[in-house]
Amino acid sequence: MQFTKGHGTGNDFVLLPDPDGQLDLTPGLVAALCDRRRGIGADGVLRVVRAAKHPDGAGQAGEAEWFMDYWNADGSFAEMCGNGSRVFVRYLVDNGLVTPTGEALPVATRAGVVRALIEGDTVAVEMRRPRLYDDSTATLGGRTLPGTAVDVGNPHLVCVLPADLELGALDLTTAPGFDPAVFPAGVNVEFIVAGEPVDGVDEHTLMRVYERGSAETLSCGTGACAVAAVALRDAGRGTGVVAVDVPGGRVTVTVTEDSCWLSGPALLVATGEVDLGALLAAA
Ligand SMILES: N[C@@H](CCC[C@H](N)C(=O)O)C(=O)O
What we know:
283 residues, binds the ligand N[C@@H](CCC[C@H](N)C(=O)O)C(=O)O, Diaminopimelate Epimerase, Chain A, domain 1, 13-stranded mixed beta sheet, 18 strands
């Protein structure tokens, strides 16, 4: 089977073209593809399928031709992936599956239709406005850290680090604890500190993330949107532009009254053939 590898600020994906939805994609196959030693290696898989040909996309087929069928590295589904949607659009355009018209390009996801604009290496995606809905806590290294629950289509818990903890020193090799009563389907946990002022934006935040289903990643687009919404709230604002530095680079988030734009580089770096049978046999 043909595959493409791509990433957005180091959040990396295996893209599988399956326009008619004929591939029997299973959690085991996704985990084998994402295995960094025995497979191709990635934080997740993006199946490129026509919305009309996938049960989770068919309801959006009138609005968007293509459905981003996103899977985490452990084979679980997620409702939405911000960086994934940016890489997905890069794939559609570079492979001639859509023609950019200058208008925002619709893509169906499990969290509804998102819209994307491409300019050079940058892909910007418009998603729903993050909804801050509860206070909660994460536990990490024996500490309990207060945070804010944020819905960006998928669930996030954003924790502002206390002054005695260094972002770079956090041990994210094991999953932070969280309250399953607040997050019954699991959660992506972001840890943040304020950055130095940056020209042209309202706030600057540094973040690391432990993703549900993928462990620590170099970037999380929906996480950056959740972080931006919390940083703006803490600055007493409802809208604004936030530069979010992640281990893999920088994304820019613009929160408006009714939506949220995530912008940054999205690149395709390799294409090839993968023998799915051999991969599964060796997994
Ligand atoms: N890296 C993604 C988020 C992927 C899904 C997440 N792990 C979840 O389970 O919700 C992004 O860029 O948003």
